[in-house]
Amino acid sequence: MKAIQGFMGKRQLLKGAFIAFIFLGITIIELTISYIIKETIDIDQSYSFLKFIPLLCIFSFLYGIGKFIGNKQSTDFAAKIVRHKKKSLTKHIQNLPTAILKKYDIGNFYTEIQEKMPVVEEFLRVFPSVIAAPIVLILTLCIMFLFSWKLTLVCIITIPIPAFLFGIINKPIQKKTTENLKNEGKVNEYLKSTIEGLDIIKTYSLYNLFSKRFHHLLTRVEEKGLEVEKTKAKTTPLSYILRIFPQCIIPLYCGYLALNGEGTIGLLPAFSLLIGNVFMPIESILKFLTKYREVLAIIQRYEKIEAETEERMGGALPLLNNKKIIAFSNVSFAYQQKNVLEKITFVIEEKKLVAIVGKSGSGKSTITKLICGLYENYSGSIQVFQREVRESNLVELRKQIAVMPQTAYLLSDTIRANMVYGVKNYTEEDIEKAIKMTNLNEVTAKFKEGTRRVLSDRGTNLSKGQRQRIVMARVILRKASLIILDEATAGLDSSSIDVISETLGILKKQHTILMVTHDIGLAAMADEVILMHDHNIIKIGTHEELMKEPIYYEMYTEQQS
């Protein structure tokens, strides 16, 4: 219970208690109404009951208003907590170190948490009524004892029987529902992997294989769903009988008491109204306990990620007026106990275009991540702008870096908006210059809206080359001291590569550029080339010097052929 209290927070916990008091007030009004009804029916004098009618109307109105306020406050209470937790989780994840994000496979983790939040919201919605439930039950039973202790005892005896049998009936339904939810999860997972691998499925003509497997999974979901519905259909009549069982016993016994002079006719409507106040708290508590374990598991997973430490704040500011931009000295780095870099040493000076080349898995992209401060658990020394990365102010460091990754990161927004996000100071002249340098006008000219054209999610309504031109324009507008290209030309057509090459030729006059690439032709334009192999640097030199290295020459001849 402490985990749930911590999840809500003290302020919301107090609000939950306040809503519980509203439900107690509603109960007191309902108890008063039952008393008025009993007295109205039991009154002997003709027409004297009429004096109770206005009072009954007033309390009925108050009951309706109270019920509305209580339910609305409960809904708002649950929604506010869940909304706040979603926001805080999103913000927290954005501020987590990259190593933690990789550790949790954060995309799937976040999706799972978000999908299960409605269960938490439903649970929290009944929380105030559960707090009030024991007091509501005690107050109701006290009034019932006041009216007739014998009739109350009959109610107490008959209520546990249905409650016990309800639990037995619901067990197979809950079990089959849980199994079916797992099957639905497998369907969603399979569908996701199918969409992601659609190109391969088309290339290898795997339609029939994937369709059969998908059909098999859907059939299992359908069969389990039918089993659940059949079980519900079988148990519904029994559930109905069990629910009305006490309501049948009470009138019969009430009539028996009235005939024997031990009770009045007014007991029947009064007890029929009060019996709901006995059932409802018990049902709320049972629902709460049923959902408790599931919600506790979700909250514990939430708290696990919340407990992770965010990226550090503060640190040394970068020194920009210096010829030495990047300096690696004996740097080693391992990820998940696997060596990625081993004793790497190199220096990059300002306004130089340096290429890092090597085969896949040699550690090229890891170097760019270390420069950006995405990982800090390295050994040796990494200085960027004359500051050790582990001691740098990461926010200020990253302001001086513009990254162009292999996959363009675009939002479902206009071309213009995608050009300028992350850019604070720019003019219309800057935008026009960036468009011209990247030949982006060839793309915008195809749309009547021009740069105001709205892109689809991830910019899928553009080609890869067109998407990369937008990212290149963003790099230009950022006006960063250091530009990093991480396999930015991989998979691009020759015209797009030519545009990027020409742009780099202009940018290197004013910026330091680090380019990770497989393309030896592109590396040839660099002032210096760093050749990597098996997590080490083999040699540093010009393109002509590295052509004497067998590994480099082999890569060159493979690409030429």
Overall description:
The protein is of the alpha/beta class and 561 residues long. The chain folds into 2 domains: 2-306, Up-down Bundle (ABC transporter transmembrane region fold), CATH 1.20.1560.10; 324-560, Rossmann fold. It is 64% helix and 12% strand. It has helices spanning 2-8, 10-42, 52-94, 98-104, 106-125, 127-147, 149-158, 160-196, 198-203, 207-259, 267-306, 364-371, 394-399, 415-420, 428-437, 441-444, 464-478, 494-507, 520-523, 543-546, 550-560; strands spanning 324-335, 338-349, 353-358, 379-384, 387-388, 401-404, 482-486, 512-517, 528-533, 536-541. Strands 6-7-8-3-9-10 form a 6-stranded mixed β-sheet, with helices on both faces. The longest helix is centred in the middle third of the chain and has 53 residues, at 207-259. The protein is elongated and about 115 Å long. It starts with a helix and ends with a helix. 27% of the residues are buried.
